[in-house]
Design a protein that fits this description.
This protein has ten helices and 14 strands. The protein is an alpha/beta fold. The two termini are 19 Å apart.
């Protein structure tokens, strides 16, 4: 029996225009009304995820943000708080100082963006007043020294022609106590060691006394991989990368075809109450 629904946002619950469709909204509202626990599971900041709860979903739920570095329970309490250490951030910045890659430091609600091309967007928020501009690596260091700005995630991106160079640089970080994931074709994210969406869900499992085997989670990209592989019902979107599809229990329709709503409707219609096998799904 499924007791928790978890959804990634970008490429999963959100369409290509970063909108939640009415069908997806209604399916999550119905799931919560039926007694299921809901969790958004995103690499976005808390500020960004809060907007979707307030403006669209309007349901209680867990907020797994910054790839699991912070988890907020339905009552608004922070039940996980795992920032990167000051020294670790300094080491990463030192190793990246002359590489001229775009670097984004993610705080809880604000990001600090350094981009040699002076394009201050982030992959999830575009241009925003919550994107603080840094003109140099030293300005990123100053933010790292700010006692009022915890940094939970460091993001790197590069133009397609420089991706091999960026990947080689990221390989040099694997000896550090970090978790590196890919959230887009040219976007990579670094969290503290053992911080993932899955680790956040494991904590929620403890808090709710719901085994991971009763979680259904939806995702599409590399930072969803462990989550989709390990929960009882991991659903890959039709637009997911092959690596995620390969470990998924089921592949749904794409994020532009309400793939989340399609499967949640089948959950609510009783496909998983023991009378229907996993192979009986009609996607």
């Amino acid at each position: 029996m499924i007791k928790l629904i978890g959804t990634d946002l970008d490429g999963t619950l959100l369409d290509s225009y970063s909108r939640i469709s009415p069908e997806n909204v209604e399916s999550i509202r119905q799931a919560v009304a039926s007694g299921l626990v809901y969790s958004a599971c995103s690499g976005r900041t808390l500020y960004s995820v809060n907007k979707f709860f307030k403006n669209d979903l309007k349901v209680p739920g867990y907020k797994v943000v910054l790839n699991g570095a912070v988890v907020i329970n339905p009552e608004g309490d922070r039940v996980i708080n795992a920032p990167l250490s000051h020294d670790l951030i300094e080491e990463i910045l030192k190793r990246s100082e002359f590489s001229n890659f775009k670097i984004v430091l993610d705080g809880l609600d604000y990001t600090q963006v350094y981009d040699p091309t002076r394009n201050w967007t982030t992959y999830f928020e575009g241009n925003s007043r919550h994107n603080l501009h840094a003109s140099s690596i030293n300005e990123l260091r100053e933010k790292n020294d700010d006692p009022n700005f915890d940094i939970y995630k460091i993001c790197f991106s590069a133009s397609p022609d420089r991706l091999p160079e960026l990947q080689k640089k990221l390989e040099s970080f694997t000896s550090l106590p970090v978790t590196i994931s890919r959230s887009g074709n040219d976007y990579f994210e670094i969290n503290a060691q053992d911080i993932t969406k899955l680790s956040a869900l494991q904590r929620i499992s403890e808090l709710e006394s719901i085994p991971i085997s009763q979680f259904m989670c939806f995702g599409d990209y590399g930072n969803d991989y462990d989550m989709i592989r390990e929960v009882g019902y991991g659903v890959a979107m039709g637009n997911a990368i092959e690596k995620v599809k390969d470990v998924a229990w089921k592949v749904s329709k794409s994020n532009n075809e309400n793939g989340v709503a399609v499967v949640i409707k089948q959950v609510l219609d009783g496909y998983f109450d023991g009378s229907a096998g996993k192979s009986d799904l009609d996607i």
